[in-house]
């Protein structure tokens, strides 16, 4: 009995020694990685070198992007360490070397989608006109520009990619934009705090919507040529399904996020910035009047819009000031050791590329870099090279930039050729960013009024 007791004590003693050794080894590895390893020479907040939790907690409020751009870059420079294995790059040449382009949707394919887009934009214009005619005030109406554009973008992505509109414009209400916003927060939390994954469940509304889209498409007599069909076609190899419904759901959600959240943010921000700068709004409306003629009730064609200098300048300047990657994104890990600005970066280090910093560098854009100045884009020689990445996320170029540009041009031109917009100065202007940027509370009100008849 004593021998058995001695053996048990010996076993627990051995387990204790192993556990203590493991803890000491883990602590040693953490400290070595933080302060003595290859990344230790890279500047950054020293405590952040120990764990990713510090930078993750910065994201809980959606304000991490402000901390990165206003504190980290000014304090630590163009190469900064944000965690044990996370390095942010804000250097122009280093970003250029690591940026990988993905093929965009062809211009011909996107052009074929214009009638579907226009039908959604027409619904939007008619709804705004109805609200203005009801005259909440004597000469117009206060409308949430974020909600207007999001619902229109949602209908566009539904009509062009998933078989039909989501029909939210009539009531100016649909649960999907809010659900997508919450899904972005869920994904951010899941990435920052992996231990919480079992408790961060997907909203059943989104899953049910996806299952309904898949079911209806499989039962359709004649398949449409769109993104959903392409996803379903790639899942089959002979008679064997290669993708589960959940994997298809994830693909559908990616397109809903890319097609509604990012484009609607840029579009609503462009209109908001024009409302805040009435002199710029007037210049754009003059260009639209001269190009479109005296046709108040007809929506413009994309061929009329795609080469308009000031319209494109407004969109570019909006994307310069408010790129969709405010806090540098998720990043990519190189497969081999590399040297960046004199620092040795080991393989599998998470490199995040800070495009925002380039967009605000006065060395390239001048002293008025923080101001909304579309004129800086008038003339091809005036725009700096290799410091403007409007559609980039992480290290890849947005595959839908032709689609996004056509959508933004159509919405902005269709609304502002027929309506004047004015800013309401008493409200808060704040931007949050979890994965993509958004207006706080998904809301920003503008005063809409009908424009008088245009003259040639």
Describe the protein.
Heme binds at residue 398. InterPro entries: Cyt_P450, Cyt_P450_CS, Cyt_P450_E_grp-I, Cyt_P450_sf, Cytochrome_P450_monoxygenase. With 456 residues, the chain is mainly alpha-helical. Helices cover 51% and strands 11% of the residues. The protein is built from 17 helices and 14 strands. The chain has a 3-stranded mixed β-sheet. A hairpin with a 2-residue loop joins β6 and β7. α7 (145-161) runs antiparallel to α11, α9 (204-219) crosses α11 (245-276) and α11 (245-276) packs across α14. The longest helix has 34 residues, at 2-35. It is globular, with a radius of gyration of 26 Å. The mean pLDDT is 82.
Question: What structural category characterises the helix and strand content?
Answer: mainly alpha
How large is the radius of gyration?
A: 26 Å
User: From the coordinates shown, what is the CATH architecture of the largest domain?
Assistant: Orthogonal Bundle
The CATH homology group name of the largest domain: Cytochrome P450
Number of strands: 14
The shape is globular
* CATH topology descriptor of the largest domain: Cytochrome p450
Q: Under the CATH scheme, which class of the largest domain?
A: Mainly Alpha
Concise summary:
By secondary structure, this protein is mainly α. It contains 17 helices and 14 strands. It folds into two domains: 1-36; 50-193 and 260-450, Orthogonal Bundle (Cytochrome p450), CATH 1.10.630.
Label this structure with key terms.
2 domains, Cytochrome p450, 17 helices, 456 residues, transmembrane, 3-stranded mixed β-sheet, mainly alpha, globular, single chain, 3-stranded antiparallel β-sheet, 14 strands, 11% strand
